[in-house]
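To: structure desk
From: M.T.
Subject: fold request, one chain
Message: Could you run this one when you get a chance? Sequence is below, nothing fancy, just the single chain.
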Amino acid sequence: MLARHIRYFQAVAEHLSFTKAAAALHVSQPALSQLVRQLEESLGAQLFDRSGRATRLTDAGEAYLQYVRRAAHELQEATRAIHDVGDLSRGSLRLAVTPTFTTYLVGPLVEAFHSRYPGISLNVREISQESIEEQLLAGELDVGIAFGEVSGQEIDAIPLLDETFALVVSTLHPLAQEKSVGLQALSTESLVLLSREFATREQIDRYCLKHGIHPKVLMEADALGAVIEIVRRTRLSTLLPTKTAQAQDNLVAIALEPEHLTRTAVLMRRRDAYQSFAARIFTGLAVEVAAQLNQ
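Reply: Done. Structure tokens follow.
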């Protein structure tokens, strides 16, 4: 069976239209229809329901499409493996991180990686942890940096470092001279936090619920930079990793007592995915840089 037959089937399945699929493939519709029928005959099953006004996949077509997509992904992995270069003189790496890591971990890590392997093209995205896991499973990322609470069993999580949260305020805030605050003080603070789509916010909410804290969240933001800038310019406070605050000017990190809010940063990768030389070297370097930051 020719790969072209499968490619044409996949196009029709994705567009659910022979006309649109033919246009996308730059072939005539009769030629496309003929090849799809040849595929159906070779399989001994009808893949599309053409009886209505719209083209639909049959049950057999739905089942076949899942395997076609899986095979297409494996072929992409095979192509990457063939073109991978062991001496790291060229290549690419697709990395995603959750927002709070950009200030103190990703910067030094990218600096170290680029200085050692300048020929590697590095694509860095800042997205939520849920999106990182989804894109790892879809083969759209090589590695991700997030937290230890990985939901998918198909994802490996390599511990990097532990981080502790603090109450973060500007140097002009009334609490700026304090070394620590009691947990109940959070109930009297006016906070700006990351929005609920982020794992950081979910961890903060669980911590507050556990300790009976009822914070006054006056503002929410979809970007860490916005949270930091708001805290820097107002009397609002926030909860962020201590290392994140220490990497910023005019911010103060105040310890939470007696029970700290901590979490583990991990490097995530899909368990059964092909690991390029670049991905393997990056993983080892991430562990090395994280160990230096932990000292």
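Reply (cont.): The longest strand covers residues 155-170. Let me know if you need anything else for the meeting.
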